[in-house]
Amino acid sequence: MITCLGLAPALDITYGVDSVGIGRIHRPKWVLELAGGKAVNVARALVTLGAPARVVVPLGGHNGAAVADALAAEGIPATLVPTSANTRRCVSAVNEQSGATTEFYEPAAALDADALDRVCGLVDGLLDGWLAVSGSMDATVIPAVTDALARAAGRGVRLAVDLQGAALRAVLDRVPVALVKVNRSEAAELFGPGQPRDLAVRLHEAGAATAVVTDGAFGAVGLTAGGAWLATPGERGRYAVGSGDSFLAGLLAGLSAGEALPDALAFATDAAAANTRAPGAARFAASDLAGIAAGVVRRLEGAIS
């Protein structure tokens, strides 16, 4: 089982428009409403890929109720933690011709004490499998969540993280991490500017057994003690939102099935490319992976460090 934990879920609303302009009235041609947030997107993609998965998210208020309904309607297994704050909304306007997206992301409210205790209790109940933690995390909850993740790793739970800033640093400092998947800018936030391979080396040295740094259309570098590989995507569509989450889902699906890192990287790259075919995060179909030009994975020569 792959458990996806996210502390910043959202009600995602996407508008399809011809263009966006300040001070104008916009009349969308279509509207898409989804349960969102990075962990939800990862879980949606995992379900599509046929991997056993569930999402754990705190939800509150009328937006939280809408997210819960959307999760049930999509058949995404979910453990919902009640919280006092209304769940945020994220609104995107997508240009139908170019795929260019204008985004408005509300800040996620901090968890109340009861919700935080329940989240940590759920983590404490995990005995094995993968735990994927992704999305933003309020500074006030980082110590308690990090403690729970450290206890889970100590029991043999395999931890995968797609975090940034203080949360990523805290986890790397305290927790044995099986997998870190971040984009180039998130890695650079910790270590300064660098090429994806160099940043992956730094993540590996900081404690990630497997480090993966994505770089959009340029591909991704995956690295372990046994070597480094560059995965370059094949055919891509116009809609980039959710590609990183779909990549992580493909990576976890491959690794949890026992695939070696190069094969898991190839699967992840194709899942990310499939995501770009339609608006809305991780809304591809499993059949889309067979209908795109596959990505290419090649080994990078040279020492790891």
In words, what does this structure look like?
The chain has 305 residues and is α/β, with parallel strands linked by helices. It has a domain at 37-58 and 117-300: 3-Layer(aba) Sandwich (UDP-N-acetylmuramoyl-L-alanine:D-glutamate ligase). It contains 10 helices and 14 strands. Strands 5-4-1-8-9-10-11-12-13-14 form a 10-stranded mixed beta sheet, with helices on both faces. It has a 4-stranded mixed beta sheet with strand order 3-2-6-7. Helix 4 (142-154) runs parallel beside helix 5, helix 6 (184-191) crosses helix 7 and helix 8 runs antiparallel to helix 9. The longest helix has 15 residues, at 261-275. The radius of gyration is 18 Å and the shape is globular.
For the record, the CATH class of the domain at 37-58 and 117-300 is Alpha Beta
Under CATH, the topology of the domain at 37-58 and 117-300 is which?
UDP-N-acetylmuramoyl-L-alanine:D-glutamate ligase
Shape: globular
Total strands: the figure is 14
Strand content: 25-35%
Secondary structure tally, helices: 10
Could you give me the name of the CATH homologous superfamily of the domain at 37-58 and 117-300?
Ribokinase
